[in-house]
């Protein structure tokens, strides 16, 4: 009989605890973290006020501690105020605006179902791709960046494609457009469609009324007018949306974004125990709570009014510099992100590089279909001040003087 070879406990083994590293500590990790000061006057993230930074720097507690649940309950109330909704199914995603986009689509749409997307900038394009990836049958209504869809056009497309969900961007940040929303929720109800609206770039800066406007699913991001660091994203579902997503036949493609788990994690499902699903971004939630507290103290209407006033001041200053605003009609301009048509003969990249180098200021170019069309200036929340508009205007004036009209 041959026995298997015995491994003697005395046999020498490789000692992995010492000097066997082949990759030394990287030199960069032995240097301190360096973060420059920047004026974040692009489409986001925006500068975070010290009060919110301080909230995010508070000591960590466990994400399932009762105090954390209280903080999450407060966040829910803050979001209900910011969205103007009484929806119980209101949470903040552990993730950026894209997490909310995916959460909305993955939970309310099943493979093969029809989805209608209004595309007038990059955000419709993104949502169409997200829906396509999870196997939806996607139909798009397409306009040039900044284009506005009439309610008649929307109703015609709803009747034609019979979608389970219609997507519209309220604050189209790639185009600088604040799209009208009134009446669309009613049309969606008439056609048995859920109405999904993106307010990542507009919440707190331009009016939106989730309940009154019959919006079924609404989401935003933390890093724009809310002024929290990037990484959390409020989202809310009304009863109609819950009915659809909790009676589905298939499981959503994402475990992380599954609302049946997230609703329990946020204490929305009526069950006595809130169970572990994933580890929420504790510091991010502290900061988000503080940003929602600032919005509640300021008042939504005051915040909308203030953004409009500062935006109008900026628009006048831009026109005084001889610049043309990309969205012609004032009432359709997004107060948080202004788009400037690239001045003739200039190289927009050169202008932005000049402003970054000489003014430590971020402004950005277009995104997706608006690339090569616009320069974007964002003054949101904490950054939304006339003195910041003056700084932005001075930087642009300086760039226009110094970036000669030769290399367009
Ligand atoms: N929608 C809109 C209107 C946006 O402006 C953005 C961010 N620029 C997003 C969605 C995506 O958000 P995030 O980058 O936080 O994922």
UniProtKB/TrEMBL annotation:
InterPro entries recorded: Aminotrans_V_dom (IPR000192), Aminotrans_V_PyrdxlP_BS (IPR020578), PyrdxlP-dep_Trfase (IPR015424), PyrdxlP-dep_Trfase_major (IPR015421), PyrdxlP-dep_Trfase_small (IPR015422), SP_NH2Trfase/AEP_transaminase (IPR024169)
GO cellular component: peroxisome
Biological processes, Gene Ontology terms: glycine biosynthetic process, by transamination of glyoxylate
Gene3D superfamilies per record: Aspartate Aminotransferase, domain 1, Type I PLP-dependent aspartate aminotransferase-like (Major domain)
CDD domains: AGAT_like
Keyword Transferase on entry: yes
Catalytic activity: glyoxylate + L-alanine = glycine + pyruvate; L-serine + pyruvate = 3-hydroxypyruvate + L-alanine
Domain Aminotransferase class V: 39-385
Binding site for substrate: 376
EC number: 2.6.1.44, 2.6.1.51
Statement: the UniProt record of this protein carries the keyword Transferase: yes
Pfam families per the UniProt record, alphabetical: Aminotran_5 (PF00266)
Cofactor dependence: pyridoxal 5'-phosphate
GO molecular function: alanine-glyoxylate transaminase activity; L-serine-pyruvate transaminase activity
Subunit structure: Homodimer.
Family listed: Belongs to the class-V pyridoxal-phosphate-dependent aminotransferase family.
Protein name per its UniProtKB record: Alanine--glyoxylate aminotransferase
Organism of derivation: Esox lucius (Northern pike)
Lineage: Eukaryota, Metazoa, Chordata, Craniata, Vertebrata
């Amino acid at each position: 009989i041959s026995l298997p070879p015995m491994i003697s406990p005395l046999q020498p083994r490789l000692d992995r605890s010492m000097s066997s590293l082949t990759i030394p500590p990287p030199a960069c990790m032995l240097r301190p973290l360096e973060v420059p000061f920047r004026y974040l006057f692009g489409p986001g993230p925006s500068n975070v006020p010290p009060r919110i930074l301080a909230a995010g720097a508070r000591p960590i507690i466990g994400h399932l501690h009762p105090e954390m649940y209280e903080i999450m309950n407060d966040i829910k109330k803050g979001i209900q105020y910011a969205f103007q909704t009484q929806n119980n199914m209101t949470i903040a995603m552990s993730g950026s605006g894209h997490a909310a986009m995916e959460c909305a689509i993955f939970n309310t749409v099943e493979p093969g179902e029809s989805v209608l997307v209004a595309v007038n900038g990059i955000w419709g394009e993104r949502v169409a791709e997200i829906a396509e990836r999870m196997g939806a049958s996607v139909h798009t209504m397409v306009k040039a960046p900044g284009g506005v869809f009439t309610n008649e056009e929307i109703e015609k497309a709803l009747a034609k494609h019979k979608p389970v969900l219609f997507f519209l961007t309220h604050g189209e940040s790639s185009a600088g457009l604040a799209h009208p929303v009134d009446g669309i929720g009613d049309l969606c109800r008439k056609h048995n469609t859920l109405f999904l609206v993106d307010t990542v770039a507009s919440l707190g800066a331009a009016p939106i009324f989730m309940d009154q406007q019959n919006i079924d699913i609404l989401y935003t991001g933390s890093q724009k007018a809310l002024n929290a660091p990037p990484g959390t994203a409020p989202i809310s579902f009304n009863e109609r949306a819950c009915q659809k997503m909790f009676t589905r036949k298939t499981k959503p493609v994402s475990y992380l974004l599954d609302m049946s788990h997230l609703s329990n994690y946020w204490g929305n499902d009526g069950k006595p125990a809130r169970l572990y699903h994933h580890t929420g971004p504790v510091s991010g939630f502290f900061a988000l709570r503080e940003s929602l507290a600032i919005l509640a103290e300021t008042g939504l209407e005051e915040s909308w009014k203030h953004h409009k006033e500062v935006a109008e001041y900026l628009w006048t200053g831009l026109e005084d510099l001889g610049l043309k605003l990309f969205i012609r009609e004032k009432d359709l301009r997004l107060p948080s992100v202004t788009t400037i048509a690239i001045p003739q003969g200039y190289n927009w990249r050169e202008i932005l590089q000049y402003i970054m180098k000489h003014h430590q200021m971020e402004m950005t170019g277009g995104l997706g279909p608006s690339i090569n069309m616009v320069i974007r200036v964002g003054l949101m929340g904490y950054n939304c001040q006339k003195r910041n508009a003056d700084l932005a205007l001075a930087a642009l004036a300086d760039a226009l003087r110094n970036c000669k009209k030769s290399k367009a």
